[in-house]
C-alpha cells in the first residue's frame, strides 16, 4: 500500500482539522504509521494510570492517520467500529505511542490494527482493531 | 441486580475521582443507568459531528457507572475491553445520552451494553459492549 | 424497516443455499427475527456445554437472516465483522435460540445485534454484534 | 511465556476432548502456535468461499491451543469474548491456517490475536482477538 501523504502534510492537516488535538505524527511509512500523545494530569485515572478513553482516542487517531496516509486527506472518512483490549497499565509519566498497520484497504472499507505502548516500554498497553468507511467520491481529496 | 449506590453518591464519586469530567449521572435504576455529556466546540469533528472518542468515552463511563452502581464505589474496577459500532451522526447541538444495562455481573467480570443517543432523538448514534474486571477484594469498597 | 421476505421464503432459501444447516427460521417480524438450532452431541464441549463456535455460527446466521429479510435474498451479502460476548453456559439439552434486531440498515453496511438463549430460559447465554456488507447492485436480488 | 505442552500432547488432548474436530496442531512455539483446518464441501458458502463460522471456529481453537500451551491442559478455560474482522475470501481448495499469539497472560484472563490465512497465501483472510477466562484452581491441570 503506497503512502500518498508525507508526515508534514499529515501533521498540518491534523492541526487544521483538530486544533485542540495533542497528538503528534511521528512517522508515516510503507508498513504503518506512528502517532504519540502527551499525557496530562487530567487524563490520569485513580491509581495514577492513563484513562481508557485516552487510549481509545489515540487508537482512533492512529487508524485515521493510517487510512488517510493511503487514500489522501479526505476529511469525510469515518470510523464505523472500534474494538479495544486493555492489556496493562500505561505509565503515567510517559508519552502514549500508537503504531497502526492496515490489514485491508478496500474501495469502501479499511480495517486496521493499533498497538499502544508507553514510550520506551516493550510490552503493549492495549490493542485495537477498527474499521473505517471510505467516502465513495475519490474527488473529495483535499490538498494541503 | 440490586442497586447499592444512589444517583447523588455516584455523582459525588465521579466529581471527586474525575474532577475534569463533564459527564452527569441522570438515573440509576434497577434495570440500568443513564449518563449525559454536554458537547463542546472542541469535541466536534469536521462536518459538525461529535467525534468518535467522545462517544467512546461516554460509553466507558456509562459501563463504569453501571458496574459501580451494583458492586459499590470500588475505584479499582477496570475496563478490559470495549467494542463500539458507530451508527449515525450525533447532532452537534444536543447532549449525548448513554443508557447502560449489565448483561452479566459475575464475581470477576461484568459485561454490559450501552446505547448512545443525541438527546431527544429516537434512533441511537452508537452501540457499545464492554467488559469490566472486578477487583477480588470486596473490602476495597469505598464509602462516600 | 420493512420485511420483504416471508418466513417460508427464508427457510426455503437457507435450505437451498446451506443444505447442511440445522438452523430453522422461527419468525420474521418488523422488529426482528428469530432462529433456532438443535444441539447435537458433537457440538458439546467438555463439561456438557454448547461450544462457542456453535453460538458464533448461530449469531452469524441470525444476522444474515435479519439483513436478508430487509434487503431481499441477496446471496452476496457478507459478514465483515462479528463481536461476541459469552455470558452463561447454555443448557446441553435445549435448542439454542437467536433473536436478532438490526441497529442500522445503510446503503452499504448493516449492523445488528443478536441475543442468544437456551430455549425457555430468561437469561441470555451470549450477545453478539455484527456488521454486514451489502452488495451495491440491488438487481442482484434472487427470487425464490 | 514458556510453553508447557508439546505439539503431540496438545494434538492428543484435542482428539480426546473434541473427537469430531478436524483441526490439526501444526506448531507450538515460544512466540505462538499454528493450527490448520481442512475445508470440506459442507463448509463452503455460496460463491465457493469458506463460511464465516468455519473461520470463527478455527480462531477459537487457535486461542484455546495458545492459552493451554502456556497454562497446561485445563479443560475448564472458557472463551469470554471474540472479535473477528473478515478481510478477504479464503480459497475454497486450501487448508485454513490459524496463527495465534498471546498478548497477555494474566492470572484470570488471557488475551490473544489470531491471523487466519488460506495455506500458501501471504494476505490474511481474517483477524480475530479473543479473551479467555482462566480457572482459578491451577490444580485442575490434566495430565495426558
List the helices and strands and how they pair.
Four copies of one chain form a homotetramer.
Chain A lengths: L6 H11 L5 E7 L2 E6 L6 E2 L3 E2 L1 H20 L6 E9 L9 E10 L3 E10 L7 E8 L11
Antiparallel strand pairs in A: 1-2, 2-6, 3-4, 5-8, 6-7, 7-8
Task: Describe the 3D structure.
Four copies of one chain form a homotetramer. Chain A is built from two helices and eight strands. The first copy, chain A, is globular. Chain A has one domain: Roll (Thiol Ester Dehydrase, Chain A), CATH 3.10.129.10. In chain A, strands 1-2-6-7-8-5 form a six-stranded antiparallel beta sheet. A two-stranded antiparallel ribbon of chain A has the order 3-4. The first copy, chain A, has 144 residues and is α+β, with helices and mostly antiparallel strands. Chain A starts with 6 loop residues before the first helix and ends in an 11-residue tail after the last strand. Chains in contact: A-B, A-C, A-D, B-C, B-D, C-D. Chains A and B meet through helix 2 and strand 5 of A and helix 2 and strand 5 of B.
Amino acid at each position: 500500500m503506497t503512502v500518498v501523504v508525507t508526515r508534514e502534510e499529515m501533521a498540518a492537516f491534523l492541526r487544521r482539522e483538530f486544533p485542540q488535538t495533542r497528538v503528534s505524527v511521528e512517522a508515516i511509512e510503507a508498513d504503518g504509521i506512528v502517532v504519540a500523545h502527551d499525557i496530562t494530569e487530567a487524563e490520569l485515572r485513580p491509581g495514577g494510570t492513563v484513562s481508557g478513553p485516552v487510549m481509545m482516542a489515540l487508537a482512533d487517531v492512529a487508524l485515521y492517520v493510517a487510512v488517510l496516509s493511503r487514500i489522501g486527506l479526505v476529511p469525510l472518512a469515518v470510523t464505523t467500529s472500534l474494538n479495544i483490549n486493555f492489556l496493562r497499565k500505561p505509565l503515567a509519566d510517559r508519552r502514549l505511542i500508537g503504531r497502526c498497520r492496515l490489514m485491508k484497504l478496500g474501495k469502501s472499507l479499511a480495517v486496521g490494527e493499533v498497538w499502544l505502548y508507553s514510550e520506551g516500554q516493550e510490552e503493549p498497553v492495549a490493542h485495537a482493531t477498527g474499521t473505517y468507511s471510505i467516502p465513495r467520491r475519490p474527488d473529495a481529496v483535499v490538498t494541503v
